[in-house]
Design a protein that fits this description.
Oligomer: single chain
Strand order of the largest sheet: 2-1-17-16-14-3-12-13-15
Structural class: alpha/beta
Helix content: 10-25%
Order of helices and strands: EEEEEEEEEEHEHEEHEHEEHHE
Shape: globular
Largest sheet: 9 strands, mixed
Length: 340
């Protein structure tokens, strides 16, 4: 398939810059994946479309305050570090801006309690960096770090918990699994009371999520890798729901990629952990996921290709056209879609 098949024109004004005051008050576009029919809802009414015996699957990864602003130790020149993944206890792979100032051996200072030395240059021009600090790194990062908001968000985030899901648990993401931002604890409690099981996976979202596809033929695109975990309790919940005829509703493309990575040809899941670089694009036969709650994705992105695999490219592109006509808010802090 060609990259241009996944292009659409989005007015700048529809890119959401701030989260809504109430998480579950966003718009919800309902898309029937079989007929292409579109209707409109409010997110908190999602409960009306979930049935007893279904299983809702959430990604409980938590975003690190991974953006560090500092200076070069010898010249005082300003620098920005963006933490990607921990390689050893105090060694991280990071994006450094401006990169030309971050040669191996160079040292940098962040506030009064954190220093760093560049060890090596690795893939995509990223750096391996060793940090020096007192106490726990997570505590230092919590004091000094900022949320690594996507580049299309230009307004400052007032409350950084709004870039976390209410059920986030395991630190490790460089970006939020944004489909889950619409849920409140109260809504999740009501969903459980209805008899819908809730299961959790962990997939630490990398910044590769925002990496543009640079090839014209999408099959030639190389996906980034992300670390996932599925434990026995949650694997059993999902398998049981499937076995008893319930639907598996994945919240977000990250949960979807995790489930489809782990599932065998019959859709059965086993507890596992590892790295996934699965690339889901049309035509793809889903093994576990039946329905998907998702946000609206960037033109020509791998995430748009994934949702097109589930609902059909024509249905998705038409739904996006309708969303634009109805002034839906797009991307991370935007509105939601339910593919059912």
């Amino acid at each position: 398939m060609n990259l241009k098949d996944f292009y659409y024109d989005l007015p700048q004004r529809l890119i959401a810059q701030t989260p809504l005051a109430q998480r579950d008050s966003s718009k919800l576009l309902m898309l029937n994946k079989e007929t292409g029919e579109v209707s409109h809802e409010v997110f908190h009414n999602i409960i009306n479309y979930l049935n007893k015996g279904d299983c809702l699957v959430l990604n409980d990864s938590r975003v690190l305050p991974a953006r560090l602003l500092g200076v070069r130790e010898d010249t005082g020149s300003p620098m920005e570090f963006l933490l990607l993944s921990r390689k050893e206890q105090d060694v991280w792979e990071v994006i450094v801006r401006p990169g030309k100032r971050a040669k191996p051996g160079r040292r940098f200072v962040f506030g009064n309690e954190l220093r760093a030395e560049v060890l090596d240059i690795v893939n995509d021009g990223n750096r391996l960096v060793r940090f020096e600090y007192d106490g726990l790194f997570e505590n230092v990062l919590d004091r000094l770090g900022e949320m690594p908001l996507p580049p299309y968000i230009t307004e400052k985030l007032q409350d950084r918990e709004r870039y976390q899901t209410v059920y986030s648990k395991h630190d490790g993401s460089a970006a939020a699994p944004t489909a889950g931002l619409h849920f409140t604890k109260e809504l999740l409690e009501k969903i459980e009371e209805k008899g819908v099981d809730i299961a959790y996976v962990t997939l630490h979202v990398g910044l590769g999520t925002f990496r543009p596809v640079k090839v014209d033929v999408i099959e030639e695109h190389k996906m980034h890798s992300e670390f996932y975990v599925l434990d026995e309790e949650n694997a059993n919940k999902i398998n049981m729901a499937k076995e008893n005829g319930g639907k598996i509703i994945s919240v977000g493309t990250t949960s979807t990629r995790t489930l489809e990575t782990i599932a065998d040809e019959n859709g059965v899941l086993k507890p596992s952990s590892g790295w996934t670089d699965i690339f889901i694009y049309p035509p793809y036969k889903f093994k576990t996921v039946d329905k998907l709650i998702t946000n609206f994705h960037l033109p020509e992105s791998t995430l748009l290709m994934l949702v097109s695999s589930l609902a059909g490219k024509e249905n998705i592109m038409n739904a996006y056209k309708i969303a634009i006509e109805n002034e839906y808010r797009f991307f991370s802090f935007g509105d939601a879609m339910f593919i059912n």
